[in-house]
Amino acid sequence: MPSQSSFSLAPRLLAERAFSRAAGAPLVGGNRVDLLIDAESHFEAWLEAINGAERQILLENYIVRDDRVGRAFRDALVERARAGVHVHVIRDWLGCLGLSRRAFWKPLLDAGGEARVHGPPRLLRPLTFASRDHRKMLAVDDSVGFLSGVCISAQWLGRPERNVEPWRDTGVALRGPALADLQQSFADSWAGLGPPLPDDAVADPQTLESAGDVALRLIATQPNSAGVYRLEQLIASMARHTLWLTDAYFVGVAPYVQALASAARDGVDVRLLVPGSSDIPMVAGLSRAGYRPLLEAGVRVFEWNGSMLHAKTAVADGQWARVGSSNLNLASWLGNRELDAAIEDADFAKLMQAHYENDLAHATEVVLAPRRHRRGTRVHGGKHPGPHAHGRGSSGRYAAGALRLANTVGAALTDRRVLRRTESTPLLVGALLLLALGLLTVWWPAVLGLPMAAIVLWTAINLGARWWVLRRRSRDADSTRDPS
């Protein structure tokens, strides 16, 4: 008969197995994790690691921009490549579109480094643009690795000369056995773009010495894998006390919003920190349009007061934390290649909580506007209010006006923004766009007809080309089987 201690371990073992299955990543112990806050600390640590590389550098980033920061990284990579270090770089085609051209990378290629592009337009794969390589990672030798939300661009440093503050972002430095998983994630991306890396590019985790006592899961998601989404759903359902989220482009889908709302109704302190002003205004509008169900369930929503909040983090119950590149939206969950670390360590989680509380000191809380009684509604005791209670008399109108003024002033003094009955901007924008498109179609049918015809023809050409390729492969296979 099982002992009592075995029963006490069962819930923990079940939770560990659930986390592993949801994330699609095993728990790896023996690591050291250092928190990096904002781009300046990232760039300093990344460049120091690159300059000290002796064997190989693996760099994968959504944006590498041809500016002073991008050139500093490129020049450091060129110097190491000339010194005999194997340098491999992956950048995203759409992320770098117009930001770093071929001429920018030529010095690295001439020095013996390699650079590949993820997701350029292709004839046989017309929808590759819908899946991006949104990862931000660096692995140097078998010594240190980094993952983050920071791109290689001076934009993250702000513009002090114009009083534009640096972007708020978060990442980590990893040392220990988990570095092998980081290398493997890059190797998988690299192999999808051409010949694979040498076998010795990915270390055997058994050979990597323990660097600390932190356990973590490295979640390297690919299109349609949804590892972070499944894990976030699981964390929302299991959190008992706190669940604090930071996200740059939050557009919650119904199941996840319901999971957060259910946690809040169950007494969990659920908080969501998002940008107050975004570099993608349309996403900010969609995000605000989804505040109401969260607020009504008791989730607290805060908007960052700085230039841009770009971090993607979570911390739950002072025991678990996530840092990486995944945003809480369908593009990250289902479409992109993302990279996150889910860290199960109390000390690190408490550090994340402390930084979160510091961030809230630079944010404005969004609150619901007080409900106003409508004509014919009931109040306490089942009685209908009289005319003055409805605000028909002058004293009622003055009282209601004073109440609204007090709420507005109070919200300003307490760093709160009142959410009105609807955040209508996305609806207005959508209505105006559809109206403009409808009018253009009536007056100039070709405005809509020509693009639609181009899409249909492009799709037909691609399907025909794919059919021809598959047909040739089938014939080649048949001729191989039957030489006669």
Textual characterization of the structure:
- The structure is a single chain.
- The chain is of the alpha/beta class and 484 residues long.
- It is built from 14 helices and 16 strands.
- The chain has helices spanning 4-23, 38-51, 68-82, 102-110, 178-191, 227-238, 254-265, 281-289, 291-297, 330-335, 346-360, 394-413, 425-443, 446-481, and strands at 28-37, 56-61, 86-92, 114-118, 136-140, 144-148, 170-175, 214-221, 242-246, 269-275, 300-304, 313-316, 320-324, 338-344, 363-368, 416-419.
- Helix 3 links the parallel strand 2 (56-61) and strand 3.
- It is globular.
- The N and C termini lie far apart (68 Å).
Quick gist of this model?
This protein is an alpha/beta fold and 484 residues long. The chain has helices at residues 4-23, 38-51, 68-82, 102-110, 178-191, 227-238, 254-265, 281-289, 291-297, 330-335, 346-360, 394-413, 425-443, 446-481, and strands at residues 28-37, 56-61, 86-92, 114-118, 136-140, 144-148, 170-175, 214-221, 242-246, 269-275, 300-304, 313-316, 320-324, 338-344, 363-368, 416-419. Helix 1 (4-23) runs antiparallel to helix 6 and helix 7 packs parallel to helix 9 (291-297).
The oligomerization state is single chain
Structural class: alpha/beta
Number of strands: 16
The percent of residues in helical segments reads 40-55%
Number of helices: 14
Order of helices and strands: HEHEHEHEEEEHEHEHEHHEEEHEHEHEHH
What's the arrangement of strands in the largest beta sheet? 4-3-2-5-6-7-1-8-14-13-12-9-10-11-15-16
Low-confidence stretches: 1-9, 373-413
